[in-house]
Amino acid sequence: MEQEETAAREDADSQLMYRIERPVYDEAFIRTHLVNRKENSTTIRQRLAEKFQCSSKKAKAAALSLLPILTWLPSYPVKQYLLSDVVSGLSTGVVQLPQGLAYAMLAAVPPVYGLYSSFYPVLLYTFFGTSRHISVGTFAVISLMIGGVVVREAPDSMFYVLPANGTNMSAVLDVEARDARRVQVAVVLTTLVGIIQIVFGLLRFGFVAIYLTEPLVRGFTTAAAFHVVISQLKYLLGVETQRFSGPLSAVYSVKAVLSKITTTNVTTLLLGLSCLVFLYVIKHLNERYKKKLPIPIPGEIIVVIVSTGVSYGLSLSDDYSVAIVGKIPTGLLPPAAPLFSLLPSLVTDSFAVAIVGFSMGISLAKIFALKHGYSVDGNQELIALGLCNFISSFFQTFAITCSMSRSLVQESTGGKTQIAGLLASLMVLLVVVAIGFVFQPLPQTALAAIIMVNLLGMFKQFRDIPSLWRTSKIELAIWLVAYVASLLLGLDYGLLVAISFAILTVIYRTQSPKSSILGHVSSTGLYYDVDDYEEAAEYEGIKVFHSNSSIYFANSDLYVNTLKEKTGVNPVHIQAVRKAQKKLKEKTNSNHSSPLKNHMVEEQRNGQLGDRHCDLNSEEAVFLEPLNAVHSIVLDWTSASFIDSVGAKAIKQLCSDCSLLCFHLQGHLLSELDSLQFFTGNATTDMVFPTVHDAVLYCQHLHSCSPAAPTNETV
């Protein structure tokens, strides 16, 4: 027993104690005894002049901000980093080459444009990007979004022409004219995406990515993965079908493939399945033995080389009608201005591509930055991606962002800086300039297999559903809405629906706040929900009301109604009681001076007071009912982030109805109430207290000092 007491004393001695004794403070006292910092009195003109004032220090800071490479390249540790960056760059380039060819098919443009998009943007990001580990370039989701726009603006039906050598033959598809038009659409879309990202970055709009919450992005990308797989089925089976875009495009695409299933090219199917199995095994081995392997096994480039060799050696295109990549021009195209006449019809799509592309890039950049202990600038990332897209579009590229699979390769193989990305882009340049023609016999079914296997990670996102079910039903709803809407309505409309639904969930949460009555934990000065903690006890006659939402036009009525329900105080009833008491007092005073007084008293004595002397109306009779036992209410506003004029008027009306006396709130809310001129009339700063306990002690003191039975006062 003595040992337990000794241990308890030791615990008490070791516990950090908090003792303080002071008067009860209110806001009026604080304002007279604490000195506020002086507000900035500079004018807007002075601020603008200071902002745009040029100096060598500001010029240097602007240059370092726009070109982050200048912050690390001069001090680049060659001996420690160069070998790692070279190995990482070569490994990433080996993956980037086949993905560039494959994702061009998703964008509905010839494969060589995927190589262009794997060179120029990567080169530019080395100079303008702030992340050291992400690999920018072609990405399945963005490529698919571009492909949907391209097919909508340049469908096959626009390019059927009659052959010149006869009138009885059916129209044939002019593939060259179609591809040229689709490239123009993709290039103009990329230009507009770049402009939007640059403008957003200059306006410091890097925060827009927060509206694409993680469940929304994961549901959206899962649906995009389904769209990608469905779009590749025709290449895997070797059938020719129309490419669809817009709502229900996935359904129409599956229906079109199934309708042509009997025309499947067996050679194409066997080759595609072989590539699928091989890539899946390689991917599994890379994941399982990633700690033992110095670099990942480059399954994609192996598939490209082997399938190209088999296709060339066996003449699969000529003898077995296997679709191949076809002509790959050698060298780079000269810069050319986009066809800006196409801009009006692409504005909405460009916003969607710009936001999704930035969201993908910044989320992955932040993950690597956190892991390796450096920071990334969201606004500079917007500018970097915008410049990559805008400048590259003049060289016939389509929109890019970072790729998760390539970024993981670049990071896991020891990449330290964007020198690795630079080397990867130079590998792509070597192929474009010197050996691009080697890949002309590459079967399209092999590229389809590469695309499908790279999407396996996105399909694993279905595992989010059970975990979200356990943790947050609202986030699960966002995930499912993003997935279903994007799958059925298309990626553009699906993204719009998903963002709208996510915003609605925020409104729903503000409309359904958690409200509680707080009680005091003895000898602590702390207040907790009386329904959750047994030690939390209410003071007699005092209600401490807490709500975890702000008070504004959308929920002010809800706040007031919940307050009445939780506290049991009805301002309308209180006003009726007071009105009845006042009328009764006036009538009593008039009766004292009336000549009928003695007659009434005589009738009362004889027990003959009839109904004619009791014709008080219902309001006058209310005084007989006892007033509510609650004499004070404390409003705890620590969770409120803002209050608008509608909310302030609702609370002030409550002050008038219930003699509202005290609040507990934070300084920023107090400033807003000052701006709204809340503290006028019956609302004063004497009603505001720095802590809940100050307010409660004030209420107790006020009630104990009242000479008569108190009326219902709200604190």
Automatic annotation (TrEMBL):
Assigned GO CC terms: membrane
Annotated GO MF terms: secondary active sulfate transmembrane transporter activity
SUPFAM superfamilies: SpoIIaa-like
Localization (cell): Membrane
Principal subcellular localization: membrane
Domain STAS: 532-699
PROSITE patterns in the cross-refs: SLC26A (PS01130), STAS (PS50801)
Gene3D superfamilies reported in the protein's UniProt record: STAS domain
Residue ranges crossing the lipid bilayer per the database entry: 102-127, 134-151, 183-203, 257-281, 293-314, 350-370, 382-400, 420-439, 445-462, 474-507
Pfam families hit by this protein: STAS, Sulfate_transp
Bilayer topology: Multi-pass membrane protein
Keywords: Membrane, Transmembrane, Transmembrane helix
Protein name in UniProt: STAS domain-containing protein
Organism of this sequence: Amphiprion ocellaris
Gene designation: SLC26A5
